[in-house]
Amino acid sequence: MKAKKAVVLLSGGLDSQITLQLALSQHYDVFALSFDYGQRHAREMDAAIAIAQKAGINHQIVTMKLGGIAKSSLTQSDIAVEAGDLEKSSIPNTYVPARNMIFLSVAASFAESVGAQDIFIGVSEVDYSGYVDCRESFIDAMEAAINQGTVCAVEENRPIKIHAPFIHQTKKEEILLGQQLSVDFSLSWSCYLGGDKPCKQCDSCLLRMKAFKEAGVIDPSYL
């Protein structure tokens, strides 16, 4: 019996790395999908390539330049990344407008093309920066839209399921699962600023450091 196919969104960050390993542990034939969308540095993309290579899986990189239409400190170098503040209630300027909507739409096209009915994305609405496209209501709405706009769902009764396994989990819980799955945390990259070493000051760095500390696990990327 052939393994079921799944498309996994692989940014190169911690969440996507653990999500990928989880899908592999569930015996999916994984197709990893990454996006070069004009982000301010290449470190995360380099991480995605390294993670996919180590896993020995099919890896596709889609190039699209969002900087001209999506205003964000991650797509425009003239906008400084805000300093991290985990107590802040407003959404930081690292939010890229509708990014996950765009990514999931492309993932749906890819999934239908390769015969996959499962898409994995590593979003969470627990330990996160408040992004609206990382919430369960958005994931549910996107799944419904995808299944109204794909032939496999509408005409062939093969609907696509979006899996967000960490939607209600903390990063601490993710990390503990990653440890059980023997994830090589040193391969992932979380810092919004790029560089040779993580800045340890942006929201993404602070969330990662906090989670590893709570999990009691050493993070080789932040030594």
What does this structure look like?
The chain is of the alpha/beta class and 223 residues long. It has a single domain (5-222), classed as Rossmann fold, CATH 3.40.50. Helices cover 35% and strands 11% of the residues. The protein contains seven helices and five strands; from the N terminus they run βαβαβαβααβαα. The protein has helices at residues 14-25, 43-55, 99-114, 136-146, 151-154, 171-180, 203-215; strands at 5-9, 29-36, 58-63, 118-120, 161-163. The chain has a five-stranded parallel β-sheet, sandwiched between helices.
Outline of this structure?
Helix content is 35%, strand content 11%. With 223 residues, it is α/β, with parallel strands linked by helices. Helix 1 (14-25) packs across helix 6 (171-180) and helix 6 (171-180) crosses helix 7 (203-215).
**H/E series, N to C?**
EHEHEHEHHEHH
Please identify which CATH superfamily we are dealing with. Answer: HUPs
Give Rg in angstroms: 17 Å
User: Main sheet?
Assistant: 5 strands, parallel
Number of helices: 7
Number of domains: 1
Shape: globular
Biggest β-sheet: strands ordered side by side in the sheet: 3-2-1-4-5
What is the structural class? alpha/beta
CATH architecture: 3-Layer(aba) Sandwich
The CATH topology, please? Answer: Rossmann fold
Q: At the first level of CATH, what is the class?
A: Alpha Beta
The overall pLDDT average reads 94
Stretches where pLDDT is under 50 for at least 5 consecutive residues are: none
N-C termini distance:
44 Å
Share in β-strands: 5-15%
Strand tally, please?
5
